[in-house]
Amino acid sequence: MPRQTIFVVLLAIFSACGPSRDNRVVVGSKNFTEQLILGEIIAQQIESKTHLPVERRFYLAGTYICHQAILGGRIDIYPEYTGTALTAVLKEKPSADREKVYDLVKTEYEKRFDLAVGAPFGFNDTFAIEIRGDDARRLRLMTISQAAPYTPKWRAGFGYEFMERPDGYKGLAATYDLHFADAPRIMDLGLLTRALKDKQLDLIAGNTTDGLIPALDLFVLQDDKHYFPPYEAVAIIRQETLTRHPEVKQALDELSGRISDDTIRQLNYAVDGQHRDVKEVVREFLNKH
User: Fold this and answer.
1) Would you list the domain boundaries of the chain?
2) CATH code of the region 127-221
3) Each residue's pLDDT tens digit, 9-27
4) Region 92-108: what's the mean pLDDT?
5) What is the DSSP string of the chain?
6) What global pTM score does this model have?
7) CATH of region 3-124+231-288
């Protein structure tokens, strides 16, 4: 390769990180509605309380991509869930103790990655094993254990990350002895609820805070064996960012405990169900709270 071409390639790689971040903050998010909302809440809160310019880098696929992006300095902050951090990133065993999980994640993220874990926003977005409301009522199902005997005749659908992560499909199937009519279909998270409603699938793994669950008359089966750990929403922040801009921590601390399960469900529905603009929805929420 000619020397000039090598120089151009290297220049492109290093310039991809953008200009100096001394006076701006880059906020990232994963690629589903709730993450987009949380990313926008973080961005608008920082803009409002610190007057720092915020660059948005949303839709960064899943957990692994976001984690690598913040480790590589391409983003400064992104929203995460404690149970995901515990199992998918730290590779630790699940635990049902919220405080224990949060404290372990906070300690290990600082020690291993030099990343800070913000205070919980206030809601727990655990996985939701969902079926149609009609099926739940007809078969009188309340729990995953009660549904297990019916699964050999059902079609299941899950997101790619759920199929791969240690707190995902394999462990769930083993815990509840689940067997399906066919191999589970792997679909984009945004398509699963509609596929369930339209009877393309009979059981899916979604999120308990999904605003479309009541709107589409879906039913969340109780995790009666407590397979899933808590998934409290938090901000993951580079320590370097907090050192450079300590006012960012103060701004985000104001969000601690301010977003309940019902609140995030309403915000999700406003975007997914009512098709409203995310920035407008977030602006209304912050103005109220």
Assistant:
1) 3-124+231-288, 127-221
2) 3.40.190.120
3) 333 333 444 444 678 999 9
4) 94
5) --HHHHHHHHHHHHHTT-S--TT-EEEE--SSHHHHHHHHHHHHHHHHHH---EEEE----SHHHHHHHHHTTS-SEEEEEHHHIIIIIS-PPP-S-HHHHHHHHHHHHHHHH-EEEPPP-S-B--EEEEEEHHHHHHHT--BHHHHGGGGGG--EEE-HHHHHSTTSHHHHHHHHT---SSPPEE--HHHHHHHHHTTS-SEEEEETT-THHHHTTEEEEB-TT--SPP-BEEEEEEHHHHHH-HHHHHHHHTTTT---HHHHHHHHHHHHTS---HHHHHHHHHHH-
6) 0.81
7) 3.40.190.10
